[in-house]
Each structure stands twice: as C-alpha cells, then as structure tokens.
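Now for today's protein:

——
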Amino acid sequence: MEMVGNSKRAVTSADFKRAVHFVEEDVSEDATFDGLLFAAQAVGEAGTKRRLTTRIAQLRCRSGCGLRWWLPCAPVSEVTKIEWLDTGTWQAPPLDGVWLGQSFDEPQLVLPSGFWVGVSDGADIRITAELGHAAAPKPLTQAIILIAADWYEAGINPEKAQETQVSFGARALMKQARYGRPCEWAAG
C-alpha cells in the first residue's frame, strides 16, 4: 500500500500532554512527543489494519478471477480510480457499475460483470481510494497514548521500537478493533 497524501495525526502533542498530565504550556518536549506519537500511530495502524485518519492511498494487487475484492484495511470511504497495467501503460476504465460495499467493517469493491474483459490474469492492478476514520476511535487514540507514554518513560527511541514493545493494555485495545480481511477475491 502506498500513501499518496500525508497522514494526519490521530493524537496531537497537546492531547498527549493532557492525557499524561504534562503542563501544556511546556513545549520543550513537543518534538519528542511528536516523534513518539507518529511512531505509535504507525504501530496502532499496522496492528489493527485500520487507518486512524483520512488519507488517499494507492492499493496494489493482481487481477483475480472474481468480481468482489476485499480491501486490505478499513475503513474505506471512496474508491476513485481502478487501473491495470497493460503493456507498460496504466489503463483506467470508467467506474460505471462499480460500488463499495460494507466500507466501514469489511470494505469490498464490487465490480460489474464483464469488468475484467481484456485484462490478463495476474495483471498488476492499482486502486486509488480514500481510507481512514474521519475521527479516530477513542479506544485507538488511547492505545496510541499508552504506547507513546510507555516509550517516553522507558526512553525508547521510536525509530527502533518494535510491536513487541507494546504494553498489554495497548495490545488489548488494538485487538478489539483489528480488521480481519475475510478473503481477497470472490466470484461475485
């Protein structure tokens, strides 16, 4: 998955300082908090397969034999383009009859019969979509705060942090919201 636009943060430094009882006016650690929060959000998004803020992304897959494709993350608010690679050139058919089903829980792209005519099996497919929550769910923002606070207290460098360095509480919050893709392709 390739992100096209910049990701907004689900938790700001000010939100973090309020939650962990830092003096909001003290900005001396804001750069540190920003780095921790950015890394913690990445861990949260990877661990849940949910995008916590809205952004445009390009998703890649190979053409299958189906007319229903489950997206690899949730939520998805809109699919704006579907393209396939044909002899070195990206082809973008009109999206007539294409629709997005269950966009919040199990986002799936439903294609009309005949959509893949002229596309070879296994062709490289690129889908441009708007992903993410308009407002990050409270349990997931709490998980980000817990992760960042733990890393800050332990002096862990967020660039070297791993998912294994996430507390039980944060893991439990993330597990409740985890998106599980039921399958990749289906006939229709």
User: Anything to note?
Assistant: Strands lie at 2-3, 55-62, 68-70, 76-86, 89-91, 99-101, 108-110, 124-131, 185-186. The chain has a mean pLDDT of 89. The longest strand covers residues 76-86. The chain has four helices and nine strands.
